[in-house]
Amino acid sequence: MVKKYSQLTKTIWMTLIILGLAGMGHGQSLQEVMKARGLSEKDLLAAAKTYNPTGKKDEYIVFSSGGQSGQVIVYGVPSMRILKYIAVFTPEPWQGYGYGESESMEVLEQGKINGREINWGDTHHPALSEMEGDYDGEYVFINDKANPRVALIDLKTFETKQIVVNPIFKSEHGSSVATPNTEYIMEAAQYPAPFTNEYVPLEKYNEIYRGGVTYWKFDRNAILTLNRRAVKRLKKAGVPTKGLKDLEDQEFQGEDALLSAVGEKVGSEAAMKNKAALLKYAEKEGRLIPGKSFTVEMPPYMQDITDAGKGPSFGWSFTNSINTERYIGGFGKGNTKFQDRLANEAGMSEKDTDYMHVVNWKEAEKLFKAGKYNKINGHAVISMADMVAANALFLIPEPKSPHGNDVTPDGKYIVVAGKLDTHASVFSFEKIMQLVKAKDFAAKDPYGIPILDMKKALHTQVQLGLGPLHTQFDSVKGVAYTSLYVDSMVVRWNYEEGKVLSKIPINYNIGHLVSAEGDTIQPDGKYLIALNKLAIDRFNQVGPLHPQNHQLIDISSSQMQLLYDMPLPLGEPHYAQMIKADKLNPIVRFDKKSFKHYVRSGQERIERNGNKVTIYSTAIRSHYSPEIIEVKKGDEITWHITNTERAQDQVHGFGIDNYNVHGSLEPGETATFHFIADQEGVFPYYCTEFCSALHLEMTGYLLVKP
Amino acid sequence: MVKKYSQLTKTIWMTLIILGLAGMGHGQSLQEVMKARGLSEKDLLAAAKTYNPTGKKDEYIVFSSGGQSGQVIVYGVPSMRILKYIAVFTPEPWQGYGYGESESMEVLEQGKINGREINWGDTHHPALSEMEGDYDGEYVFINDKANPRVALIDLKTFETKQIVVNPIFKSEHGSSVATPNTEYIMEAAQYPAPFTNEYVPLEKYNEIYRGGVTYWKFDRNAILTLNRRAVKRLKKAGVPTKGLKDLEDQEFQGEDALLSAVGEKVGSEAAMKNKAALLKYAEKEGRLIPGKSFTVEMPPYMQDITDAGKGPSFGWSFTNSINTERYIGGFGKGNTKFQDRLANEAGMSEKDTDYMHVVNWKEAEKLFKAGKYNKINGHAVISMADMVAANALFLIPEPKSPHGNDVTPDGKYIVVAGKLDTHASVFSFEKIMQLVKAKDFAAKDPYGIPILDMKKALHTQVQLGLGPLHTQFDSVKGVAYTSLYVDSMVVRWNYEEGKVLSKIPINYNIGHLVSAEGDTIQPDGKYLIALNKLAIDRFNQVGPLHPQNHQLIDISSSQMQLLYDMPLPLGEPHYAQMIKADKLNPIVRFDKKSFKHYVRSGQERIERNGNKVTIYSTAIRSHYSPEIIEVKKGDEITWHITNTERAQDQVHGFGIDNYNVHGSLEPGETATFHFIADQEGVFPYYCTEFCSALHLEMTGYLLVKP
Prior knowledge:
homodimer; alpha+beta; seven-stranded mixed beta sheet; 40% strand; disordered N terminus
């Protein structure tokens, strides 16, 4: 059949050529191009499905972890073009992140651990914020496996706004995961360690080393601002606004702070009476709230991937584990103890099953609110015993060394893929609840946690292939896609009916995979991306460190079709989420009034107070004002620069020779730089963006006198 | 005509559908996809010209500066997929660059200026190494405008191997530029400053502030190694090799060091006799040699883009300038001096012409070798007076505030584009030489440099459009492409005949542009990329900081055709070079024996010497050996880890909790990490690459006792 079609096609192309279409006035015809480049008709179809002519926007946006680069990668689907690397844990000068610009320095400062700057992260699992189980396009969270931390990126600006350090973990993996209304961001530990920061010998592993899951409280209204627009709207809504102008652009940490400040202006009674309107019209910024966050203590199994229940399973969370053997034998000549035992990879995968941890986080929240926790390193830890007593923590055996742990869109099932098992295990939440309610426990683990019977909790098991890992979902009810690491394939199957539908080979070694809106209660189907770990021969060689390969697959029909191979030029992504592009609503310029130290043209000045020098500058095509700044060696410089441009995309930069200072000034933004002028000499500063034909002339001198 | 074709096409597609080709078993037909995605036939042709099905390699590789990201970007043409961000001036954890791995720490250490770590760079102009005016695919050089430095990237590994700090400049721009055999890498200053590091008031600008061009000597045989293969080959060539085994894998700095060491083994006579064979078979690494480099002093004009002569103009170099007005008036309220004068952008562009600096670098080299220089900050500076006396430095007026300065492939002309002028000025090297030889000088500048008459030196001037900047060349003789910044266009024109051929609009605001092999003596034509500064509405919005837009243009026929819009996700590239992919020959794994501290499996060990602990580890799927390491707080750790894999792409990573240490271990590589165990506690370390189904189990504990 294929041959026949090709014959026909050939005839038709011949006709096209004769008809004169082929040339199109641009040299080669389509057929000539296809022949010269070795493209089949299937390739041409894939090209048409992924090619974006100039100006065409993408339908979906992917937020991918950047692995050890410590960043988050943003790219478009179906064109598979990378749009941005967002700096998160790693300083990045283009964005001015961590190079002297105060706002970013403060964010990175939050990421210090025990006073030490940690300037990289091993990002794994991004989590888009959700409302009612659907991505809302407002925030994305990302974790650091190596130095347990979670960061928050605001999707209005695509900038990192917060980093929280896990106060008790020394490693994590199953993070970040959002509950269906982003009540919490979950962070599961990985390699057990003492919760405190002391040395504890490995002999005390079972007694002192611990795992757990931290539930970071998220508050969408953590920071409230009454800007001009808000005050105007309040006035229109009939709220007394006299004096509120004074509060403009101040940031209030939480509702109470705002209401109290407004109360002082308009009277507390009026403030409380208009609370709803005040909160409605104030600008809001979400933050994770460490003081309202808690950790559920878990045994020193290595907790792993975590997912949140939804629909019927709302209020629960599920966390895989490996090494329930609690193997710490170590291996290798030179070990200071336990020499010549099995390697971890063998010792940690001896048992046929590990445990899924089943947590009722709603109950845990109650325990937290009731004060049933211990404070460790200033952080609330709910003990296993208290969780067990509250019927809020259970274990279910799952096939050995599992990897994926994915709740189905309807919230009825949890799909676990066994890695060293060829099956996917589909657990039924309903059956789990029946066992829980009936207290039908098969056993207890050494830490007193009830263990449910695996078979009784299972809906079905389906043989998928070698090395099944992670599962994503289709718009078609019951249809799922699972990555097969060892087979280098994606399998399409039905978890309700328990049958395999089709497979597609990928190149090579797929880890996670992501489908369009795949973690929501209503996946879109359409596109699936295989997040492959190796590229080997797929791309031109660029030295011994290769790019990864993200492969776009068309899942709009029952037959999966490979569309595109996309190299990853920086970092090893682990997981990604794909959101409908029209759910995002980023700003294209800043409201200059939202910056405390903004300067209008003509208000530029230099203020000196002892050895403290404050500079108020403006930047506009193509000059800074002022252009000459003379200070004394040792002066403490605070330099506010306002980009007074209104035009979209009209960014300026700011770099000074030899001071390791660089910032990006987007339209309307005021950036503040802080440094000590500790070197004598002549230091040119200049705009590091090609902002106009006279961009080279956008320069000035910082002169530091001895 | 177009309409007619469309009509015909429609009929033909209808036929295709009827014939059953359309479905192809994969859902939508090609026509349906085109309709659904709004693709024209022209779009489909562009898609076919740029789409790479899985496994298809690119024909060209682009090395692009990464702007303020401080990196170099590598991407493929025509697919426009980014293959790698090479870390250069900015630490990058995925590559393990600057996160504790000794080799990279040493490279970054070289980049310190006056003892200060500078962890970013403003990279502008990459230069591929050349032989006989053609890219040889061995090295790429890249500059840092902000903190004047030049870095060398080895294209065997795509890793940065060297950073040199300009000892006297405080700013630069026209760099990096290679002479035709990579004799030198040129680096032109930008914002004038004192050559010393002292404060000098702006009032002394004319007397003390200076510009210049540094000629960095490049030596391809800077580091020589006799590895096993080399010794074997020497033996075969009949060279006495007794005792040479002892020298294996030692690095010799230069030929003399190698010959002397070999002489000690086989006798110095035998060594000298076999010098040619020894140098032929030794492994070689190229380096910039600061001790053999020099700077030509220039007036405090702002030197800019620089190009090297070739063919008839070999031995000469050409450097633009702006602000020959020597305007330093400054501007802006708050200036500490000269308040309320014109802004730099106005004051620096008052005159109708600036100067092209014409340098005979071969003569400068002679002066340097003859010791005719002053040492400033330990660096050789040849004075303007000595250059003038040697007939080696001239000025030619060029239209005001020029930007581009490009020598034609045949070396006969220098094309200068005027930025504030609508013309490109084509200077004739032959005419320049006639004026020089006849000492036909129009005037002298205030520093005594002869000025040639512009008109006498011109071949022609061609009106190209608004804001012409940079020029690249075609395979067709005389044909050039110039970027029009203000017009947002590329113009195809003939610099020999002095006529415009065609134009194509771009989106938006093009800076540089690059054609295939465009800076060589034999450009390939075929592809041109517009390196646009703004993207505005071309891509999905990702906040106020947008990607740049590199647009691929088909120049294989006389009618330029836009093929592809490529967003740049990180950094603002300035310039790029495009090399034929088959000229590159990177390694895919390391020779383990090339690492001094490599460890075979079974040789792992921990050695303690006082508080110095040296660990010899191996990493292979999926375990480290050893897996448990116990040290005391305050111990100084040196940790050698050998990736003993042979499989291509089988990379491992190495990260330790809370020690800010991360490395990438490519197959065959031994990486060395150095840190003080200054924190007590339990610190998991693990492989940060998804190296196998059991990658999570590739872990160990670093235990630090109090």
